[in-house]
Amino acid sequence: MEFSFGAHEYPSSGIFEVEPRSCPGFIFRRAVLLGNTSLSREEVQALMEHLSSDYHGDCYHLIAKNCNHFTSEACVRLTGKPIPGWINRMARLGNAVLYELEHYLEVLFIPFVIS
Known about the structure:
two-stranded antiparallel sheet; elongated
C-alpha cells in the first residue's frame, strides 16, 4: 500500500492509503527509492495511526503542511532519511516568500499613536 496526506474539511486524519502509483486525482511520474524499513506491516500501520494525529485533513496547507511534508516525516521514521530536497522545493520557496511578505506588511502597517 501507499500512504498519502490530503485535505478535507474535518478535524480528523487526512492520511489515507491507496494502491501504489494510483492515487486518485494525481498522475504518477516516477518512483524515488528512499531505502528500506525494518518495521513490520503492523508497525507501519501503527506509525500511520500515530502520525494521523498530526496530519488532520483540515490542517492541510499547500505551502506549510502538504503531502510532501507528511512523506518526509514518514520516511524519516521508516528509514531514518528524509525525502530528497528537490521534491518539496516549491513549498519551501513559497514559505520564504510568504515570510518576507508578512514581514513587509507588518512594517508597512505598524500602528502608531498621535499624542
